[in-house]
Amino acid sequence: MAVNSLRRAIVIALPAAALAQSEGVLELHVVARRFRFDPETLRVRAGVPVLLRLTSPEVPMGFNLPDFGVRTDIVPGKEAQLRFTPQRTGQFTFLCDVFCGNGHENMSGTLEVHG
Predict the structure, then answer these.
(1) 88 vs 5, which has greater pLDDT?
(2) Could you read off the pLDDT of 85-106 as tens digits, one per residue?
(3) CB-based contact 80:64 (threshold 8 Å)
(4) According to the model, what pLDDT value does residue 104 have?
(5) What is the dihedral of CA 12, 16, 18, 24, to 10 degrees?
(6) What's the CA gap between 90 and 57, in Å, rounded?
(7) Cα–Cα nearest to 86, from 51, 53, 59, 40
(8) pLDDT digits (tens, 9 = 90+) for 51-88
(9) DSSP assignment string, 36-73
(10) Tens digit of pLDDT for each residue in 29-55?
(11) What is the CA radius of gyration of the chain?
């Protein structure tokens, strides 16, 4: 029962992100497109492993979450994957670190880690 309640709570907290939780791993789908990430805010729980599935329909992008030491390139037409387990709670900025045009400097989002 507690697991089902937790899954419902996560689904309610993440309405904008396509997600699945299997084998204790939270999967989030993020699309990088013209100067924004969709969704811009990712909500996760401390201690729960996360798998980010990242795509870009347009141009090469990057995804960098420096507070957790994870980054990857995102190639159009291919899925990039990042795995990490957040241990600290708080709000952390992720950003595109591959120049993708004018407006690139504003391409960022927030990872919210709850206890």
Answers:
(1) 88
(2) 999 999 999 999 999 888 888 9
(3) no
(4) 83
(5) -40
(6) 30
(7) 51
(8) 999 999 999 999 999 999 999 999 999 999 999 999 99
(9) EEESSEEEEETTS-EEEEEE-SSS-EEEEEGGGTEEEE
(10) 999 998 999 999 999 999 999 999 999
(11) 14
Cα of first residue to Cα of last residue in the chain, in angstroms, is 19
User: How long is the chain?
Assistant: 115
* pLDDT for the residue numbered 19: 54
Residue with tokens 């980054």: 71
Amino acid at 12: I
Q: What is the DSSP letter of 21?
A: E
* Residue 67: HSE in the Cβ half-sphere, 13 Å Cα cutoff: 15
CATH of span 26-113: 2.60.40.420
d(CA 83, CA 52): 6
> What type of residue sits at position 46?
A
Question: Tokens 């960022």 appear where?
Answer: 108
